[in-house]
Structures are given as C-alpha cells and as structure tokens.
What does this fold into?
Amino acid sequence: MNEWKYDEQSLTYKKIKKPKQILRNCVVYFVSSIVLSAIYYVIFALTVDTAQEKQLKKEYAYLESAYDSLNTNFLKAKVVLEHIKQKDTMIYRSVFKTNPTESELTFETKNFSMASIMENYDIVNMTATTIEQLVERVRQNRAKIEKTISEINADKTKFRNIPAIQPVENKNLKYNSVSVGMKIHPFYRIPKMHTGLDYTVPVNTKVFATADGFVENIIDDAAKGTAIYINHGNGYKTVYAHLSKALVSKGTKVKRGKLIALSGDSGLSIFPHLHYEVWKNGKLLNPINCFFAELKPAQLKEMIYASSNIGQSLD
It folds into this structure.
C-alpha cells in the first residue's frame, strides 16, 4: 500500500518513493534505452552502408560486369571459330592438298551463379584463360586458311580449273533435290548408287560450266540422255546430263560460268532435271563440297540437309 506524506510548504500530500520502486524504474529505463538503441542501429544498418559494405558492393558490381564481358567474348570467340571451321570445310581443303584444320582444344561451358563467383574468384580467371585459348585457336585456324588462300592466289589457273560454282542459277536453293549416295531408282525400284546432284529445274533452264576446261565429249544415250563431259585438267571432270540441247561442241574451250547447254528430260529420267557430277582422278566427289566460290556456310548446310533427306533419285 502506498504511503503519503504531507508537505507543509506546498500544502499537499506526496507519495513516498521506496528504494525498490526506484530500482524498478532504473531497470525499466535501462532496458528501454537498450531496445531503442538496437532499433536505431538496425534502421541505420539497413539504410546506410558502411565503408566496408560500399567497397564490397563495388567489387561485386565489377565482378558481375567482368563476368558478363568474359562470357560475351567467350561466345563470340566460339562463333568465330565455328565459322572458320565451316569455311574450311566448304573450301574442301583436300582440293588444294593441304591438311584439314584439326580442333585440338575442347571446351566445356558451364553457367555459374554470381554467388559462386563471389565465393571463388578463380572462375573469372578460368573463363579468361579459356577465352585466350579460343582466340589463339582462331588465330591458328585463320593463319592456315590465309595460307590456303595465298596458295590459290599464287596459281590462278589452278583455281579456275576447279569446279567451284553451281551449274544453274540456284542462289536461293529452290531447285535442290537428290545428292550422291544410295537411292531408290525411279524405274527399277531398287537401291542404286546415285552418282550426282539433281536440280529440279524446268526444261530449257540455262546450264553453265563450273570451271575452265574443254568439252571432252558429248553423248546421247538411253541412260543419261544428252550429256556433256568437260575435262578441267588437274584430274577434274564434270558431267551435265539429261539435257534438251547442247550449245557447245566437242573440243570447245570453256570458261567458268559459260553457257554450255539447256536442261531437259532426255534419257532415263522420271522428271525434268539436270544431273550434275564431279570427278577427281577417277573418284566420284559430292558436288555440294565444290560450291565454295558461291555458297555461304548457312546455305551449304541447308543444301546438304535438303538433298540428303530424299530417298529416291530422278534418274
């Protein structure tokens, strides 16, 4: 029970404070001060960065930017390397008696989170090293291709005698058909080796010589119909079959791109088309590998895909 004391000066009763109550008040004040201090500290920590936190955020932003930059360069380098490989194949390096470019390096791409980067700075160094290796590989491949091009330029005559364009106007690849390989014969209905590339062009489409040379022979038989044989030298020969008309004669010298015939449907043919063959030293080549002077890698891929997925020949 509270005790009261009369104050003669103020003429009022005042409560007498006991020692326990004073102690209780001090404890409450102390605890309240600590709680308020903690709240102020949390608010300060959430809204104001310390010098160390500012430095860590700067390092994080730098690493994030560096990682994105390295990944971008890495992907660009891979694209360039793949493009060089495609160009290398398209040029058909064996034609120029040079060794094909070999890929000695293999790379495994992996996605890393920023958390893992912050935990291990070595990831950034690893990515940088990988990019350096790719760039070096690109440099080596480019040097080999430049050497090949230099050899070509050193002997223009030799290059002009290599079949390197399509025998008909087909830049949009709308006339693609059957390629070299085992196909179902349209008349015999059995698997038979198809020795050329067929173009589904209309009758009387212009046919061009694919390299410099001379007309070695012109035949007209039951199988190939009217056909022109051109000898290009260096072991190369080309054949243009199922023609409606030959516009050159035996022994005529021709240049690459010269009009030599009109396509047709002569001989053993189920549909109007041009049958085109390329031979090197008596060995059959796939003509698609000899269009490096005209087709881009993407077009080459499209042509290979379209022609290889047809199971029946036209002749």
